[in-house]
Amino acid sequence: MARSTSSPPSWIKPELAALVKAAPDGPGWLHEIKLDGYRMHARIEAGSVKIITRRGNDWTDKYPTIAKALVGLPTKSAYLDGELCGVLPDGRTAFNLIQNAMEHGDASLVYFVFDLLHLDGEDLTGLPLVDRKARLEKLLAGLSGPIRYSYHQIDHGPAFYKIACEHGLEGIVSKRVDDRYEPDRRSWLKTICLNREEFVVVGWSDPEGTRHRIGALLLGYYTPDDGKLIYAGRVGTGMPVAELERLYGRLLPLTVPKMPLSEPPPRGGRFGSPLVLSRVHWVRPEMVVEVSYVEMTPDGLLRHVVYLGEREDKLARDVIRSRPD
Description:
Blueprint: E1 3-4, E2 17-19, E3 29-33, E4 38-45, E5 48-53, H1 64-71, E6 77-86, H2 95-104, E7 109-119, E8 122-123, H3 129-140, E9 147-149, E10 153-154, H4 157-166, E11 171-176, E12 188-192, E13 195-205, E14 216-222, E15 229-235, H5 241-251, E16 280-282, E17 288-293, E18 295-296, E19 302-303, E20 306-310
């Protein structure tokens, strides 16, 4: 049930999603399209708005257009959960558009809202999800512009997932219809159409031929038990000249003389050209990027990797995965 309170909390840790291989089925599940952007909370009170990252950082100044639109919502106070996205002409969201907006302004971005945690003095986190979404849909009814309601499908998860993949979407997120909001817990489930993941940049290789600034980014991840930084492969595809120039400017101050990896990367392998360590520039492991890939080989290297963008909302130490068996 909803509880009466005075003001929305300054920050609520977001509820998270665990990756699964198959979407759940049955009427107890609600399914949404997985959006490709930045997870953002929005806190509204007395005409003031805060846009808050998943780690609690205030990014309101980065997105003045979104903040202005949020002020116009028909409420005195609210706390929203959603995803800030760039939208392609065909309606799909694309992460690289977020990067462009951070440099050229946020007028092209859309804030898709999928949950309502607080409204006009009521704490809604204890309500079933379907009730929170009903309140949210009513709040956003009739609005146009950059604030949009994130619609859902109840039941038929596998079929919904299949349609999402057929339309070139990233995947779906599944949530129990009667669940309360559980901050900082992976109670939701995400089913992905493509393999895409965040990795830490550990260095870059020299370019060849007419390639600009960077040949490829060298990627790594931390192991969950002992915190070792493990090499995962390279990505050189998906970076236009302007992005190569931007990445070079970001990485140059991070250069270090010593390799940050816990173990040296393999010089060669069954896939791709050999890695020439004398042509590698190591960096402090602080930058996180998102990539798509076909598979990770048994020896732990990514295949057919495409760069999608930098994840300025993620910390390098949070990029954790287990080594391949």
